[in-house]
Design a protein that fits this description.
Order of helices and strands: EHEHEEHEEHEHEHHHH
CATH topology of the largest domain: 2-enoyl-CoA Hydratase, Chain A, domain 1
Radius of gyration: 18 Å
Shape: globular
CATH superfamily of the largest domain: 2-enoyl-CoA Hydratase, Chain A, domain 1
Number of domains: 2
Largest sheet: 5 strands, parallel
Strand content: 15-25%
Mean pLDDT: 88
Number of strands: 8
Strand order of the largest sheet: 1-2-3-5-8
Distance between the termini: 17 Å
Low-confidence stretches: none
């Protein structure tokens, strides 16, 4: 399988189908998953437990790409991904009254809001980027291209390191700073015995791109 697995969400898409595709990428050896939200995309729902599954339990980094106005289940799916990219004409609707508890909590985390602060009803691309809700904004119509560029950069890194980095983030969120830093150190030590770490050192010394194997 390619290092980047892509699932295109279109008309008649189902949550189960998306989950099946994403799980297939992880089991097949992909290093990054890209979710492309199409202009005709339809999705009946993406509940909070699946939002949590994506950002906490799904092992691969997930990049979400969208154009236009993103709302409802599409916005919930996007919140579960690790990175969100969009075109400059895009917006994301996060009506707090329509978000279940887990999804609203994820939105507040990404927006760095306290429990009592309301989630903005809608954010255009520029404001979403400034607020940290999206990671990159490209020219209108280039969200898919920008997402693939980000995915390629991630896929070129050591897959074990990227998975542990994702774990460090979600586990560290609920820890005091000192414990979160200790967790990060512990996970870093796990990398020291991997073949990828040795390959990274060799590649640096030999001044060549590393060839990571995921071992």
């Amino acid at each position: 399988m390619d290092a980047i697995g892509t699932v295109a969400v279109g008309r008649g898409a189902s949550a189960d189908g998306i989950v099946e595709a994403l799980e297939g990428f992880a089991e097949g050896g992909a290093r990054v998953a890209v979710v492309e939200w199409g202009e005709d995309a339809e999705l009946a729902g993406w509940p909070g437990d699946r939002v949590r599954w994506l950002w906490r339990d799904y092992p691969l980094p997930a990049v979400f790409a969208f154009e236009g106005r993103l709302a409802g289940a599409g916005a919930s799916l996007a919140l579960g991904c690790d990175l969100r990219v969009c075109g400059e004409g895009a917006s994301i609707a996060l009506d707090g009254s329509s978000l279940d508890g887990l999804t609203a909590a994820r939105a507040r985390t990404l927006l760095r809001l306290g429990d009592g602060e309301p989630v903005p009803a809608s954010l255009p691309a520029g404001e979403a980027l400034e607020a940290g809700l999206v990671s990159r904004v490209g020219a209108e119509g280039t969200a898919g291209e920008v997402a693939r560029g980000a995915a390629e950069a991630i896929a070129a890194r050591g897959p074990i390191a990227t998975r542990l980095a994702k774990e460090a983030v979600w586990r560290g969120l609920d820890l005091p700073l000192e414990q979160a830093l200790r967790l990060e150190t512990d996970l870093t030590l796990l990398l020291q015995a991997t073949k990828d770490r040795a390959e990274g050192v060799r590649a640096f010394l030999e001044k060549r791109p590393p060839d990571f194997s995921g071992e």
